Each structure stands twice: as structure tokens, then as C-alpha cells.
Amino acid sequence: MKETHEFLFPNYYLKFSCKMGACRSACCEGWPISISMKNYFYLLGLDCNADLRHRLDCGVHVVDHPTEEEYARFEPRYDGNCQLRMQDGRCALHAELGEEILPDVCRLYPRGIRAEDGLYECSCANSCEAVLELLLEQEEPIAFIRRELTLEMPPLIGRQSFFETLGVEQKIRLYLISVIQDRSMSLPQRMMCLGEVLDDMDFVLERKDKAMLDRMLSERRTTFQACADSKKISEDHLKFGLEIVEQMIAILDERSQSIRGCRKAALSYFGDGDSAIDRYRTARSHFEALMPNWESFYEHMLVNHMFFSLFPFQDRPESMHSEYIALCAVYAIMRFLGLGSMAERQEKSALIDGMVAAFRLIDHTEFDRLASHLLHRLNCTSRAQMLDLISL
Ligand code: SF4
Hints:
Elements: E1 2-10, E2 33-35, H1 37-44, H2 50-59, E3 60-62, E4 72-74, H3 92-97, H4 104-108, E5 111-116, E6 119-124, H5 129-137, E7 144-152, H6 169-180, H7 187-206, H8 210-218, H9 225-230, H10 235-255, H11 260-270, H12 274-290, H13 294-308, H14 320-342, H15 348-364, H16 367-377, H17 383-390
Parallel strand pairs: 1-6
Antiparallel strand pairs: 1-7, 2-4, 3-4, 5-6
Residues 18-19, 23, 26-27, 109-110, 128-130 line the site of iron/sulfur cluster.
């Protein structure tokens, strides 16, 4: 049902439109898509032609442990495509019966629409190539707009909150985003400073000191110890960073197919041992020469990921420091797979495809929780060690 509310949204949001059959890597490719119980029974009783009925019967299965929200799945075909995808790339369900008939996830993706405590937000996931193409085109920082919109609302799922926010969760999130958008520093420096700001924020929120929090949110901080530390990034940081990200990706790869192709390409290019660092440096120079504005693209991807995923207030009982570690892991994976995808290529579409694969892992799995646990396992958790990941 359509509803009209005042939404907060990033400025690319209204420009988004699906590329449909023209998409190089459609969102329904390579992973099972979960649908709700309501959507499943609706599809079961749908009046449609014999071919579509056959595709639905073969393609949609109830999962082993169904819940109301995740009741059944579209299982991918042998070639990774959704059973409903036609040869020309279009969806058979959409083509025969129109958009209104699609399960919520297919109709809304990549949009994330939220309503909580009277606040409405919408944005799009980085895992869609059309979204990343919009971000790549945009040079200036993403602006957040508050405006009345009339949108089809998804079924709203209550979120468990484990954090003290002193009633200003959205303001805190936008403040943290502004640190990543502070172009007076390099992107790695902004990442380090974010760790420092989060430590201070954690302290203030734990003490429930609203006056101190208000002061913090209204001032633009100009001195950061972390910023000075990040100037000391050495070859050792790069060496450890490479080792850690390779181990992390190898473990994550076992759980998700999405990064398999670009991980293989990156690893076969970088190789291992001491020469890996030289090859990594060569790939980095190649990448930065082809993409002189890479920092603004990476800034947009981080900002969009933070807004879309409610950073650092996701619904899981993790500390703020763990959320920060997970964001550093996102940054490291973006750099490693981005440089790997472009190492022997010139076209920007190779970078987009690598980032789409990365964000299919990041946005469609419990990546943040997994990544911070993984880095604990690999003994890489201190702020100083985050320099290793950020040096990539
Ligand atoms: S990935 Fe994006 S552009 Fe491609 S089919 Fe899905 S929604 Fe459309």
C-alpha cells in the first residue's frame, strides 16, 4: 500500500531505476531469494499460464526452518539464474502479470524503506550495479534530503535495539557519516578518525551524558590523534593487511558464492609471498591512475553502506568497537577486490562488477557480525591493527 510521509533519503535515491534485462549481473543471480509466507501462498494460488506455473512450481521451495518472514526460497538454476528469468533477462512473473504481483523482495530491491519511531528513511543497497553506477557518476558528497514522498511501503519488521542512543539515533548516524565525508583528510585518515569518534561516542552514551553528546554533535572536530597515527602507515602495515584480508576472504568465500570469481582473479594476480606486495603496489598505481577520483567513489559506497545498514546501530548485541572493526573489514575488502578486479582491466565496469559482488556478500549475509568475529579469531582487533586493514 502506498503511503505519504516525510522521508530522509540520499540524493541519488530519486534517480535510481532498474536496468532490467540490460543488467550485467542481475540481483537475482547466484543466491537463493527468501520470500515471506504471505508472498509464497499468493504465488501458489496465482492464476497464470502453464509455463509460468511450471517455473514457479520448480523454482520456489519452502525452507527447512520456515518463519513468517523467511518462509520459502527461489532456488537458483544450475547456471545461477533465477528459474523465472527469461532468456532476454526479464522476469517471467513481471512480464506476464506486472510489477504489482512480485514478492516484496523482488518489487522493492534494492530499496531499503524503514519506518521507526515516526521517522521514515529510504535508500538503496550497494549490491545493485545501477546504484553503484549512480555513485560513480557523482563527484560531490552524498547529501541527505528530507522531503515528503509517496512510496509503496514494505511489511515493517520491528527492530531490536541494543544501544543507548539518548533519543537521537538518526543524528548520531549522520554525524558519523559526516566524518567519512570530511574531505580535509584522506579516506584512510577519515576511517581512523571514525574509530576515535566512536570511542568518544561510546563513552558519552554509556554515561548517558546528553549535554556532552549535544556538544559533540554540534561541533566539527578538528584534532584527531588517529589522523596523525595514520600518517605512519608503513610497509609492515600493508604486509599484515594483505595477509589478514586474504585469510578473511578465504573464510567468507566458503559461505557465499558471490565473491568467488573476483577473489580468484585477485588472488591469481597478486599471488603470495613477498612478490604479492610488489604486485599489490603495481595494481594500486594502475587503479589510482585510471580512477583519480577513487576516493569519492569509495566514500560514497561507505556512506551509503553506513546509512543503509544503520551503522553503528544494527540490530545485534555487538559493541561499537566491533561495529567499527566490521566497517574496516568492509573497507579492506572493497580495496582488495577493487584493485584485484581492475589489475588487468581498464574499464570501470570491471570495478563496478567487483564491488557488486563484494556488496552481495556484505549486504545479503550477516557479514558485519561475521567479519568482526573473524577478525577477533585472526587476532586483529585493536585500533592500531585497523591501520593494517586501512593501509590497503
Ligand atoms: S541489480 Fe539492480 S539494475 Fe540489476 S536487475 Fe537488480 S535491481 Fe535492476
